[in-house]
UniProtKB/TrEMBL annotation:
InterPro entries: AIG2-like_dom (IPR009288), GGCT-like (IPR013024), GGCT-like_sf (IPR036568). Gene3D superfamilies: Gamma-glutamyl cyclotransferase-like. Signal peptide: none annotated. It holds the Pfam family GGACT. This is Gamma-glutamylcyclotransferase. The lineage of its organism: Bacteria, Pseudomonadati, Thermodesulfobacteriota, Desulfuromonadia, Desulfuromonadales. It comes from Desulfuromonas versatilis. Residues 5-108 form the Gamma-glutamylcyclotransferase AIG2-like domain.
């Protein structure tokens, strides 16, 4: 299966920790879509969502992964399928081949533009963008987003540890893209 990641699952280490084996194939841009931090998470903070704007200048950058079909159920759990996110399907062209990829999109009633992400969540997204080598003008749009503090100290400690591991990973590796084919 092909999975289109755009938020906290951009980085392969994060995704691998959640579902096991996954393969980053490359990156894609979705024209007329935008990345927003306006989806209400189960913890009350702002999570990422793709929003179709229709505006010619808008784009959302995503990582395209190949995952085993049996891993989708695990990913559905982590993404809160039916509890804020629903599955969306994209028909894309990747390396000259048509493919179908799924992602998660905010359900009606779970979008609120006043929401802010936790500081660690935004950092996780930015580290994924860095690893995927998204253009700096795209990444810089999100670097200054206002964040909120997470008062769940156990969750903060867990994510700070993950962030440190991702930083080390980024320092010592380059994107693990399949050379050819899907």
């Amino acid at each position: 299966m092909h999975y289109l990641a755009y938020g906290s699952n951009l980085h392969p280490l994060r995704l691998q920790r959640r579902i096991g084996d996954c393969r980053l194939l490359g990156t894609v841009e979705l024209a007329r879509w935008d990345l927003r931090f306006h989806k209400r998470g189960q913890d009350g903070s702002g999570k990422c969502n793709l929003l179709f704007t229709g505006a010619p200048g808008d784009k959302a950058c995503c990582a395209l992964y190949r995952i085993a079909p049996e891993m989708k159920k695990t990913l559905d759990f982590f993404e809160g399928l039916g509890k804020g996110y629903e599955t969306g399907t994209f028909h894309l062209e990747f390396k000259g081949q048509p493919i179908e990829a799924f992602t998660y999109l905010a359900m009606d009633g779970y979008v609120n533009a006043s929401l802010r992400p936790f500081d660690w969540y935004l950092e996780l997204v930015l580290l994924g963008m860095e690893y995927c080598a998204f253009q700096s003008d795209y990444t810089e749009r999100f670097a200054g987003i206002e964040t909120i503090a997470d008062h769940d100290l156990v969750r903060v400690k867990e994510h700070r540890k993950l962030l440190q591991q991702i930083k080390e990973f980024n320092k010592n590796s380059s994107p693990n893209l399949l050379p050819d084919g899907l």
